[in-house]
Amino acid sequence: MGRLGTVPRIDRRRSFNWGFPLTFSGGRHTLAWKLDADNVIEEMYEDNNDYSEQWVWSPLDLVNFTPVVRAMPANQYGGWTELSTGETFYPNCDGLRLPDTSGYWRAVAVMPGVDSDVDLRLHQPSTGAKDGFATNLAGSYWGGESDYVLVNFNLTTSQTYDVGVVNYNGYNNYTAESTVSSNWISFPDGIYGPYNLSPDRILNLHEVYLPAGQTGIHLMNLSGTVDWGVSLHGGGAIYQSKNDALAMQYAAPGGANELLVVDVPTDGYYCISVWKMTSIDLPKDGTYNLLIKPMWASGVEDNVPTVASTQLVEITPNPFNPQTKITYDLARDGPVQLEVYDLQGHLVRTLVDGGRGIGRHVETWNGADDAGGKVASGLYMARLTAGGVTQMMKMTLLK
Fold first, then answer.
1. CA-to-CA distance for 375 and 381, rounded, in angstroms?
2. Is residue 319 reached through a cis peptide bond, with omega within 30 degrees of 0 on the bond before it?
3. How far apart are CA 156 and CA 98, in angstroms?
4. CA 57 to CA 55: how far, in whole Å?
5. For residue 185, what are the β-bridge partners?
6. What is the per-residue pLDDT for 2?
7. What mean pLDDT is predicted for residues 239-260?
8. Which range has the top average pLDDT, 41-50, 154-163, 193-202?
9. What percent of the chain has pLDDT over 90?
10. What is the structure's pLDDT at 16?
11. I need a surface site. Which of 58, 134, 156, 371 has the fewest CB within 10 A?
């Protein structure tokens, strides 16, 4: 009987490097590793070839009033399917850092490119390769237009914060800018300005000390065809976003005035934000005055209606489970449609289709479609159509 031959042992361990550098922007990113992706090599276990882990890179330090153009971040959920470390995954994002500078109100604003959309999230500053761009302090989620997050430094001594820019959809570059309020206006009663937003800039901040009561804030366009938006933020919260404004107005066309009427709840420091609407406005130069008066004073009307604007106000809670409340204002009586759509543009639920009166209204969506079936987790759009205004706002159902 012949001697049995020996089978040589094959060592399949290998190490290698790519022949080119891999460049990552600041922020949070998922690194996923997949061996034998096409299952060419037969193995006893085929379910252990994936590995995915998240890391944090140092954010870009912004300079106030100096816009920067950034590449669209990668898919916010890219690499999640290969999750293998047991850590909590947070959305992949491009990272920016708010300057450590003076000023009582500071913000970071972004403008997505054409046919694209980014969301904005405020975070505590990152401190290491695994720490940062995780839990949100505030978030701004406006579809296809400018977003901003805001810090009220009247209420905090911390000097720096990070901002994560998340890819909602599209591939085009986006523009980012940090800005800060300068001199504040105490008990305003008159015309202030002129103020300017030069090409590629997105947002101006104006701190005001307002008495309690109804106040009119009239943005008076002086030059240019910028489609303006104006909002007022309260002084009671440290971290805010465009979503958290006490009141907002942006219904007028480009180059026109905007009038914001707001019930100021208490005496205190507030912030007026003036912003460009969309990427069409980004390259434009615009100049404006602010006429700020108590509503009992004469002169604020200037032939602009003083009733509330027609707009979606907020969706809260957001994200939600099992239900959320959609708040909207109507400037006048008339027909209203309030609908919920999925991201493919399919109508999911009609919440309102009929006449409603002037004022504020709240509708509840319980995560069901028109047939009564529960919809899947994910992103949905609330669409308001009323008084010649159509506006959409994102909301997230989590199960």
1. 13
2. yes
3. 14
4. 7
5. 208
6. 38
7. 92
8. 193-202
9. 58
10. 57
11. 371
Q: Which residues contact 317 (CB under 8 A, 6 or more apart)?
A: 324
Phi, then psi, of 25 in degrees rounded to 5: -75, 170
The CA-based dihedral angle spanning residues 351, 355, 359, 360, taken in that order and rounded to the nearest 10 degrees = -10
Question: Are 261 and 211 contacting, i.e. CB atoms less than 8 angstroms apart?
Answer: no
- From residue 359, how far is each of 330, 356, 379, 384 by CA, in Å? 5, 9, 28, 14
Q: What is the DSSP string of 65-107?
A: T--EEEPPPPBTTTTGGG--S-PPP----EEEE------SEEE
Q: How high is the pLDDT of residue 168?
A: 95
Q: How far is CA 243 from CA 81, 100, 165, 314, in A?
A: 31, 24, 16, 7
The whole-angstrom separation of Cα 365 and Cα 374 is: 11
Three-class DSSP category at 47: coil
Find the DSSP H helices in 271-365.
none
Q: How far, in Å, CA of 290 to CA of 259, rounded?
A: 10
The H-or-E segment that residue 240 falls in is strand 239-241
- Which two three-digit tokens encode residue 270? 């507030």
Which contiguous run of DSSP H or E holds residue 207? strand 203-210
Give the number of residues written for the chain.
399
Tokens of 32: 């996923």
Q: How many CA atoms lie within 13 A of 27 on its CB side?
A: 26
Per the CB < 8 A criterion, the answer to whether 206 and 191 are in contact is no
Note the pLDDT of residue 38. 64
Does the pLDDT of residue 13 top 70, yes or no?
Answer: no
Amino acid 5: pLDDT: 41
**What pLDDT score was predicted for residue 310?**
85
Rounded mean pLDDT, 285-312: 67
Q: How far apart, in Å, are the Cα atoms of 78 and each of 110, 130, 135, 200?
A: 22, 17, 18, 30
Handedness of CA 244, 311, 391, 373 (dihedral sign): positive
State the pTM of this model: 0.69
Strand partners, 148: 109
Q: Report the mean per-residue pLDDT for the chain.
A: 87
